[in-house]
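Lab meeting, item 3. Inverse folding demo.
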């Protein structure tokens, strides 16, 4: 995960670096990670500012309502090719950026490079080379701090299993309550037409991990969870969850294979105040 120290260092270095020295190249072997990243960010904000250092690419932002936050850490080691002369920062309109990323097919590589102060170069290649130049936008966006949280419950489920849970509960309710004990996770919701409940037990194929220091219960918006699971879950076979009673939820998605890849998308969601 990104740290406040590294964010501050980036901001300091950026102020002293000239545009001609802010060059970088980042090439991924497939477009799936970039598609997950852009889709996730697009659910929250219209503009995105990425920081690039020799360690990799980071992004963090909160939605305008301050209900949800996304934190990306994509290490340089996960890329097929990565080079960064000095820390750099660039801001794009997410819709325009995502539109170009979606041009890539499953076997295409994607290469981003910064060659001028006001544009980003994007190459999509698999024998057939396509190159785009995307104009960057100016921004005064500051650093977004991470919430300081203590988690009493954590679990990991298959992405497909959680997607089914959300769709089942959303048939009845706009909110989902997550309740964890030592041996099971209960997802429930209620609405004008009735109630819904789904139980996932420890030791089943759907529940990969379950650790509970203190039984916890909190309620969250299904709309946000559906959007983020569809977007970030496209690159992750499983999802990690951490939360405490009536506290924000953190969902962790891996960018690619959990063993060989270290990239992460963390999604924080504030709880529903009244249950």
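The presenter then showed the designed sequence:
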């Amino acid at each position: 995960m990104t740290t406040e120290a590294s964010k501050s260092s980036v901001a300091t270095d950026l102020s002293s670096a000239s545009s001609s020295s802010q060059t970088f190249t980042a090439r991924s072997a497939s477009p799936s990670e970039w598609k997950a990243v852009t889709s996730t960010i697009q659910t929250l904000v219209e503009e995105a500012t990425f920081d690039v250092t020799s360690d990799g690419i980071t992004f963090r932002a909160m939605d305008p309502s301050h209900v949800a936050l996304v934190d990306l850490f994509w290490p340089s080691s996960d890329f097929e090719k990565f080079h960064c002369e000095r820390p750099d920062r660039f801001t794009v309109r997410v819709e325009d950026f995502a539109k170009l990323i979606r041009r890539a097919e499953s076997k295409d590589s994607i290469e981003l490079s910064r060659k001028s102060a006001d544009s980003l170069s994007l190459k999509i290649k698999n024998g057939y080379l396509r190159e785009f130049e995307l104009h960057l936008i100016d921004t005064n966006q500051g650093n977004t701090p991470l919430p300081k949280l203590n988690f009493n419950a954590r679990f990991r489920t298959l992405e497909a299993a959680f997607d089914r849970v959300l769709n089942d509960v959303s048939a009845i309710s706009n909110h989902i309550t997550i309740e964890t004990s030592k041996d099971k996770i209960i997802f429930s919701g209620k609405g004008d037409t009735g109630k819904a409940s789904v139980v996932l037990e420890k030791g089943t194929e759907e529940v990969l991990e379950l650790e509970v220091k203190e039984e916890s219960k909190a309620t969250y918006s299904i709309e946000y969870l559906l959007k983020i699971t569809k977007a970030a879950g496209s690159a992750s076979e499983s999802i990690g969850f951490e939360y405490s009673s009536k506290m924000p939820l953190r969902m962790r998605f891996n960018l690619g294979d959990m063993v060989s890849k270290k990239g992460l998308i963390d999604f924080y969601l504030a709880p529903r105040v009244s249950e």
